[in-house]
Amino acid sequence: YAAQLQERERSLLQAQVLAREAELKMLRYQINPHFLFNTLNAVSALIVTGQAQAADAMINKLARFFRNALSRESTTKVTLAEELRVQLEYLNIELTRFPDRLSWSTQLAPGLDKALVPHLILQPLFENAIKHGVARHASPVEIGLSAQRKDGQLILRLRNEAKRVGL
pTM of whole model > 0.85? Predict the structure, then answer.
């Protein structure tokens, strides 16, 4: 009986280790590698054009973003305010890449800044809004996040709209 119990405990620990490794892999895959490559290319372009201070600032923003993004377990829930803070760091990096074409806004119903959401739940949405909105349009694009409560559920909407210019 003791040997069986030890074997079950060993199996359980091994399963927990594998689950933790899978969580970390999922978190790493959540952050689109293209974002990192695009950011590093933008840093390189800043260096080549003699904008060392801007390159340094962008590297610091990137480091701060990854520090915050990877500091929590992927199963951790955070307040919507905290999740937005991490995403605003991401948007500030993208603003360096698209200074004349990117803007954003948020509209949260009162009290929803304290709603609990999975950590990095918004990251793929913001990345897609940049990739399919800002990066593909020559005109300015506004990304807007809204949060409301409906029937006891948190409803998050992210939109990316090209602004009409010169009409």
Answer: no
